[in-house]
TrEMBL record:
GO terms for cellular component: cell surface; extracellular region. GO terms for molecular function: signaling receptor binding. It comes from the Eukaryota. Disulfide bonds join C123-C133, C141-C150. SMART domains: EGF. This is EGF-like domain-containing protein. Transmembrane segments: none annotated. Residues 119-151 form the EGF-like domain.
Amino acid sequence: MDVLELPRPVINFLRTMAKESCRYVLSWDIFGGTDTVTLTLTWKLIDNDEYHPSILKSSQQHTRSGKYKIGTNFENLFAKILKIFKSQISCTPNCMNNGTCLFSNVCLCTSEWNGTYCEIPICSPPCENFGNCTSPGVCTCYYGWTGSYCQIVQTILWTFDNTLNDLSGQFIGVGYNSPTYTAGINGYGSALALNGIHNQCVIVYPYLNMSYMSFTWEFWIYPTIALPNDTTFISQCFNVSKDQCLLFMIRYDKILFSFWYDDVSGLTVIPVNKWSHMTLIYDLITNKKFIYLNGILEHAQHSNGSLSADFVNLTIGCRKMGKGATYDKFFTGYIDQMLYNSRVKNASEILNDATLVTYHRFLSNASLMDSGPNYINGSWGGGAVSIPSGIVNQAIDFPTNGSYFQLSELVLLGTSNWPLSLSLWFKINSLTETSSIAYLSDAIQCMKMITLLYNGTIQIQIFNGNKNNIIFGPVIHIGTWNHIIYTFSTVNGMRLYVNGSLYRSVITTYSTNDSPVTLTFGNSLFNTTCGYLNQQFYGSIDEVRLYSRELNATDIIQLYTNP
């Protein structure tokens, strides 16, 4: 009995069918004369081209008589061997994605697929950060991550709603000297409260890689004391060397954005005991830094280089100047809604993030949801419903006495002399008496912001500390959609815009109790504190936007022509 190994061309052919390091070897025994032989086939699966009998996966023997001329007819012999073997194997279900059935219910997959039947795609390198490999080489990333294998963090949001962790739970905040919480900018949840005298701050794990890339940081601050120089909001310092230390801090009462001896400064003094929205951007493509305050560009300047702060933790409310250094330059006040993006946001996005308080579209599948950046969801009652015939998609309708829509705990709207704009579309279904479209209230104060008089005349008003200043607008007819915008600023006073045009204005101030307020649409809800009756509006409202800034003429035309 002789044992003959297949010639090299045949072995190479088998190897193309093999998976990674696994190899297959066929051997046979030949009996008989020179013209007729009896063939016994053995198929072995071998690792790394080494002959190890202990790893024999399958052994099936077939005997067949035929005339083969040894040494000159191997290719013909091999084809017959393969035909015999394949006729006796099957995979159920069939191998997928071009996989080959090697023997019973064992599939040989291509380099892009894995699994019993080659049903699982392969991504190399593997998807990171909870990403899913959805097709060969394609990762579908979890919220907040991007990149070819989900290796780049895209969005991180720290809401500080009684937690120091980010919203996804992947970036863990560890309190240093027990920071606490207080009421936040959104009127719900909370904000981070830090006391610099007690050396309080937050250290974030794991390392957030911002080196050699663009980024945008946005957050709200509320200093409760006059801040000393170099008071720090955010830092990431690998070393006290140029471009190896990221610092967002206060210097000479203004914001400073530094890569260490590579700085850009803001122009406006940051107020105490008042909320301010900060945006700091580094653009790798243009190599520029940008500072925005309350949505408005303060300063843009070329950077000497990109950040290179490798493998050092982010700190919030203090700084640590390199490994082994102590924490210092502690912030005293509140920080809220801290948002990181691994891209450059544009000016329009930043302005909206800073000043679009809430935006309600009243879609049927999300009637109460806020489509703005702050997630200030509303509530309704008394029979208020979503209807299909809004100015854009659906709207909210007030068909019965007592129906209303309400937004609560609005912080900036309850702040004296803070600029504001309220934009909405409305349609009157019926009108028999004075009715309330938008009504402002807190525990002791209330104001009829937008009212329809019994004859359809629009009326808006504002309280200046002594009296309500009033503007009377045009008469609005039943059954048609109309656009109204109410604005206030200390420069221009109160203004009324109707269907894209300025109707009238009055110079005035705006006085409140400087506490969060409630804004109610459709009804004044029997507010006996101010002596108002239940002034029901029978009609529909759509596309409600509340801003913490005075809209300009361009904004107003845009909202009217493209609701």
